[in-house]
Amino acid sequence: MAKPECTPVLIGIGVASRREEDPEQALEPLDLMLEAVNAAGADCGNAVALRGTQYIGVPHGRWKYANPGGAVATAIGAEQARSVFASVGVLQQSLLGEACQLIANGEAHTTLVTGADCGYRLLRARIAGQRMVDSQQRDQPHVRLEPKEELFHPVESSLGLTMPVGLYAIMESALRARNGWTVEQHRDRLAELYAGFSAVAADNPHAWKRDRLDAVAIREPSRANPMQAFPYTRSLCSAFNIDQAAALLFCSQARARELGIDPERWIYPLASTESNHQVSVSGRADLTTCPGAGIAGRAALSAGAMAVEDIDLLELYSCFPLAVEVYAAELGIDLARQLTVTGGMSFAGGPWNNYVFQSTCRAVELMRAGHGNNAFISSVSGMLTKQGFGLWSREPAAQGFSWSDHSAEVAQVQRTVDVVESFSGTATMAGCTVMYARDKAPWIMALINTPSGQRALVTAQDAGLISALESEEWVGREVSVQDNVLIS
Q: What is the pLDDT of residues 284-306, one digit of tens each?
């Protein structure tokens, strides 16, 4: 059993958001990150806490800083801190888990995780024809975390299917077919789900979009809500052109008492679980399930001696609707309950590789305000490629903080298929979407199951096929393919 004095507690949270129309007036990501870090220091009530930081973990955003953790350490007077840089493809929950585990092991008394992305600044600069230049760094972090494999299959990359929205939409179509929903029924379901998210965002002071949208506005494409990958309109996709940052400050229970941090503001991390077993979308035998979510999610709940029904505040990662639907199915969560504390990534905002910090901070705010005693926060990396969970509470765990990696268990149950580079002949549709891009004609991207049990990626630009695919169920249908082009 862990020593009580080494029990990790979350003592400070900080969020920062800017919306400058003039990119020259906008903060660069590092400065926005520091704003959130300083807010976390102020939130704990003792500025000395930040200076004692011994670990700083930062996930990569759309910036080129070599060692942002080191820059943060210097800025807060914690030059002794070990800086950790996590590349895209590393779960955000992994940094949170490591920050807590170091304290639980007695290897650190104070840790910090922070991240930022300034996509709105980049968007405004692009519109204005300007190029933004961030601070330059030449030093390197103490530790650099990298995914072991590429997130995209080589066949996906070779055929240009490297935007997550397309792969998620393909999996979404497979889920629709499995459940027997018509195309129109399915679109209605997604719109209603996200209308509920919009209502939550309207009450979240940190949300990027606080206007309540009804289901019709979310469902139907328009100039302000263009189709991205059928059936996903922009309102069903993560909003990443935003300027947001977040920071979470942890310390040991003993250190918190030493600093005089008010125990009423402490939040306890009970468990951090993850699966890092990687299978590309094209190589998954079943496009509609995610065994890692079930295994890692149940492990986190078990560590806290809880069931899903015991959870007060829930956040299902919402980059696209499929992530919400599949995680809910794997854990037996009713889609009718409130599934987000922020309003989701479409409305609260989905800063590049940083959203889990945002949702955790919001859950902490709500718990402190008396809106729940515990929170269950999920994490995704890639295209449901990796899965993570954080369980938080106002009360400590009886057995202390628990961290676990379930990759080996997931590898034993994750079914895969071989993916071939080229195919011609008759096959069965496994999943499909129509891709949309500005100044480009729409085109079909689809995964097919070949008669030999292999998987291939195919495309098409035929307007008749596009119209049919958006109005009829094609998943499960026998189709004809010539050199990876869908013919009929």
A: 999 999 999 999 999 999 999 99
Q: What is the pLDDT of residue 4?
A: 75
Q: What is the pLDDT of residues 425-479, one digit of tens each?
A: 999 999 999 999 988 999 999 999 999 999 999 999 999 999 999 999 999 999 9
User: What's the chain's average pLDDT?
Assistant: 96
Name every residue whose Cβ is closer than 8 Å to that of residue 290 and which is 6 or more positions away in sequence: 326, 327, 330, 384, 387
For residue 226, whether the previous peptide bond is cis, meaning omega lies within 30 degrees of 0, is no
Residue 151 in this model has a pLDDT that exceeds 60: yes
CA distance linking residue 450 with residue 428, whole number of Å: 7
**For the chain, first and last CA: distance in Å?**
62
Q: Which amino acid is at 341?
A: V
SS3 of residue 50 by DSSP: helix
Q: Is the dihedral of CA 67, 47, 15, 249 positive or negative?
A: positive
Query: Within a 10 A sphere around the Cβ of 437, how many other Cβ atoms?
Result: 12
Q: How far apart are CA 317 and CA 216, in angstroms?
A: 23
CA atoms within 13 A on the CB side of 4: 4
Q: Do the domains 4-150+240-413 and 425-486 sit in the same CATH topology, yes or no?
A: no
What percent of the chain shows pLDDT beyond 90? 92
Q: What is the pTM of this model?
A: 0.96
Q: Report d(CA 90, CA 353) in Å as an integer.
A: 9
Residue 260 tokens read as 């005089």
Q: Right CATH number for 425-486 from 3.40.50.2300, 1.20.1250.20, 3.30.559.70, 2.40.50.840?
A: 2.40.50.840
Site of tokens 């003792």? 46
3-state helix, strand, coil in the chain (%, to 5): 35, 25, 40
- Classify residue 211 as exposed, middle or buried by CB count within 10 Å of its CB (0-12, 13-18, 19+): exposed
Extended strands (E) in 63-183:
82-86, 110-118, 143-145
Q: pLDDT (tens digit, 9 = 90+) per residue, 190-202?
A: 999 999 999 999 9
Show the tokens assigned to 46: 């003792």
Q: Which CATH class is domain 4-150+240-413?
A: alpha beta
Closest CA to 315 of 103, 93, 35: 93
The answer to whether residues 392 and 364 touch, using CB atoms and an 8 Å cutoff, is: yes
